[in-house]
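step=predict obj=TolC family protein n=473
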Amino acid sequence: MSHLAVAQTQKLTLDEVVQLAREQSIAGKQASTLQKTNYWKYRSFLADFKPQLSLDGSLPSFTRSFVQVTQPDGTIAFQPVSNNNSVLNLSLSQNIPLTGGSIFIQQQLQRFDNFLNSSTLYNGIPFAIGLTQPLFRFNQMKWDRRTEPLRYAESNQQYIEALEQVALDATGLYFDLLVSQVNLQIAETNRANNDTLFKIAEHKLELGKISQNDLLQLQLSVLNAKKDLASARQTAEVASLKLRSYLNSRNEGSGQPQRFELVVPTQLTDFSVDINQALAEAFANRSASIAFRRQVLEADRDLDKARKENGLNATLNAAFGLSNRGNRPGDVYVRPQDREFVEIQFTLPIMTWGRAQARTETARANQQLTAQTVEQSKRTFEQQIYTQVTLLEMLRQQVKLTAEADQIAQSRYQIAQDRFKLSNLSVTDLGIATQDKDRARRDAILALRDYWQAFYTLRLLTLYDFETNQKIK
């Protein structure tokens, strides 16, 4: 039994190949994994704006050493120490996106053990509330709340685009194999027909109805047909391997490579594409459209950052609460005393030699460049949509014309073959009819390939299914 007879054959349509590629190809799985990563990144971003409860401290914190102690007369003595200074701090914090600061509630307990005199002291903060507030500074949180949702929405659309790109790539590989299979069928048919015609020509030569030159020409056609058949088989095997690899298809049963028998997708759905609707859907659905808005926002953010980080930068730290000490843990909570803390930290650049202005002007120039780049990208994007819509309609007509030409060429070849058998047609005219038949068949398949690739390209560019009139999700 031959290798091809043992191999398992699976009949597939274009829709089935596209679906298989989306579900089991490596490219489809990578798109799904990347989408999960982006989802958890966004979840992490959202969590930063929710209350955070944390417990920190040092337990234990043991020290045994000699430390430097300055005496009243200014001399230095090295005194032995042996102690444990443990601290536990429980805090609940909340970021404030509007101002860029944060507020916290705190409870703390500290224990100090002096092992040299066997004493223990406790210090603690039963309750404290505090605020950390940047003043005159860039508010990163405010801008993140505007850009990160756009980035996440952009990633969602990129996932859909990735699956549509998988469909487009699978379509290309589908037609690579389909064209090679059609060429193989043509080669097999031509080989069989040429064998038959050569045998008929040999009989005609004996009867004197054909010249030796015509016989040699048919013999040459037989040899060329065998050569073309061998080349077509090799091309079909390579194309089949590429499609199997892309679909991540595994061999089953006998372990022989799985063979695909592809169906010619001649059924075209009759639908119209309005250019204005295509443009509207593209700018509503594509990740690039979301990226345009994000890029403009990020340029505005960078300009705001350059302006505010070049001047007075200050931070207000304030806390109010209760504190106490004692020999037992419970003493900390008996009549605690007020505890207040307020400070303002600031930095004021005085001499920067124009650095502040240079940074601001650089950010402003980048903002203008971003706006110009986005505008140019929008125009290029619109041109792509317009070109693809008009191309799709033209290719639909091309499919119809090449299909009609294919039928005519096949019928003409059959007539030419019959006329040759009746000695009513020359070998040269038969060869021309054969070439026209083969070329028309290939043109019909190539027209289908161009149409379906344009069809999936339009889906990719708009993320809209014009067959069912709904967004691709």
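step=describe
The two ends are 48 Å apart (CA to CA).
step=end
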